[in-house]
Amino acid sequence: MKSVTLGQLAELLGAELRGDAGVVIHAVATLEGADAGQISFLANSKYRAQLEGTKASAVLISAKDAEAFSGNALILKDPYVGFARVAQLLDTTPKAAEGIHPSAQIDPSARLGEGVAIGANAVIGANVILGDKVQIGAGTVVGQDSIIGSGTRLWANVTIYHDVHLGMDCIVHSGAVIGSDGFGYANERGNWVKIPQTGGVRIGNNVEIGASTTIDRGALSHTEIHDGVIIDNQVQIAHNDIIGAHTAIAGSTTLAGSVTIGKYCIIGGNSAVAGHLSIVDGTHVSGGTNVTSVIREPGVYSSATVAMENKLWRRNTVRFRQLDELFQRVKVLESKQKEDE
């Protein structure tokens, strides 16, 4: 079990310490669920009432909310970021692999760095390069000519196709597929003619890719995921997409081919972006939104309708179909009004 004193945490976080610096912390927890030896946080003032009953040995808290708490506290500007830092420090997640399992299949031409770990039944293809301290989970496949940067972790049953480059300190969760063929076909009198997808995938440093997410290889040039991008579970990223640095994409989102998303964007869950569109830096797309045109100005964009009683939804659907007719009638009325004036 990892542990650290409250005084050490204060120094690491640059936080103001109030209380006993010698208190030992070994885990993080919610205000309601915390016990002795655990540290919690208050990031939303509406949960202030939970401070009174918490059993946490200390709380990460803002200066404004600290007035309502008399126990041990670390006071800092953003308690939630502080919580994330402490959680990293006390993380007990096991490694994706330790050592090189005897059942792993490693091509003789592959180059392995120092401290590489490869799990049972993993397959490392020809001319693969694994950087220092890379972890390859059980059953994972890394295709030929691919490069995995130092410190990157691939969990169990990840599939990396050929000519895929991952940067340093990335995390790829189970079931993810990177470098599968993009959906490229030509139609010849009703018959689909497959277009070989000869590009690769290029992924930057500190990227996290969720479980069962798929990232297609490029048709000619590469699909690109830039530094610091975080991608949730079950996301589809099509061929030749470019995702700018530090963008976040939530679960079940679908990006069609040749989409460019800028830096520091947030794409809400279950959203969809049509092909060959671009989204400017700093844009926030709400969950369930269908993006069907270029977004040139940063801001918050939404298109999903809220849940409602089915009968009301049916009536509104009919009215929606009548909008064009209503619009034309209004135009006629406005024209007549101008003539009368």
Automatic annotation (TrEMBL):
Pathway participation: Bacterial outer membrane biogenesis; LPS lipid A biosynthesis
Signal peptide: none
Active site per database record: 239 (proton acceptor)
InterPro entries referenced in this protein's UniProt entry, alphabetically: Hexapep, LpxD, Trimer_LpxA-like_sf, UDP_GlcNAc_AcTrfase_non-rep
EC number: 2.3.1.191
Superkingdom classification of source: Bacteria
Top EC class, one word: transferase
Keyword Translocase in annotation: no
Domain UDP-3-O-[3-hydroxymyristoyl] glucosamine N-acyltransferase non-repeat region: 24-89
UniProt-recorded Gene Ontology molecular function terms: UDP-3-O-[(3R)-3-hydroxyacyl]-glucosamine N-acyltransferase activity
Reactions listed under catalytic activity: a UDP-3-O-[(3R)-3-hydroxyacyl]-alpha-D-glucosamine + a (3R)-hydroxyacyl-[ACP] = a UDP-2-N,3-O-bis[(3R)-3-hydroxyacyl]-alpha-D-glucosamine + holo-[ACP] + H(+)
Assigned keywords, A-Z: Acyltransferase, Lipid A biosynthesis, Lipid biosynthesis, Lipid metabolism, Repeat, Transferase
Matching CDD domains: LbH_LpxD (cd03352)
Assembly notes: Homotrimer.
Functional summary from the UniProt entry: Catalyzes the N-acylation of UDP-3-O-acylglucosamine using 3-hydroxyacyl-ACP as the acyl donor. Is involved in the biosynthesis of lipid A, a phosphorylated glycolipid that anchors the lipopolysaccharide to the outer membrane of the cell.
Entry similarity comment: Belongs to the transferase hexapeptide repeat family. LpxD subfamily.
Annotated protein name in UniProt: UDP-3-O-acylglucosamine N-acyltransferase
High-level lineage: Bacteria, Pseudomonadati, Pseudomonadota, Gammaproteobacteria, Alteromonadales
Gene that encodes the chain: lpxD
